[in-house]
Amino acid sequence: MNVRVRRSLPVLAAAVVLAVYGSAVMAQQKDPAFGVWKLNLAKSKYSPGPAPKELTVTIEADGPGRKVTAVGVAGDGTPLSWGYSGTFDGKDIRVTGNNPDADFIILRRISPTTTRSTFKKDGKRTIVNGVSVSADGKTLAVASSGVNAKGQTVKNTQIFDKQ
How much is the pTM? Predict the structure, then answer.
């Protein structure tokens, strides 16, 4: 192999690694769901209720995926605090904290502004969320359907405002 070619291989390899890593970082920075979102109770609908008294969701970059933290107060006054970290690879991700309807979640990206989250409890699918960010990036809408851990049919629309 030519000496000039041998010397340029490490430089080329480093450039490829930086390009791939840089693309992943840029893609993460452009995710419109990143930020702090506060539940707008007046615009949200819960069936069955009760709606949470308050809920704040923080979505941030976590490597090639995202970290989500939900904190608030349930309709009965008990504290809510749960979250997860994972990627959009269709694999089970452990849910931590006190989410009564999920011990795992599966994430799928539908488009740059839309994702699907499938919650599972004890190996069974419970709730599926369609999550979308508005064109102006100020509103996050979550359409939830399924059967919760109590066996109740769920059809919720949650509207969150960016903080």
Answer: 0.81
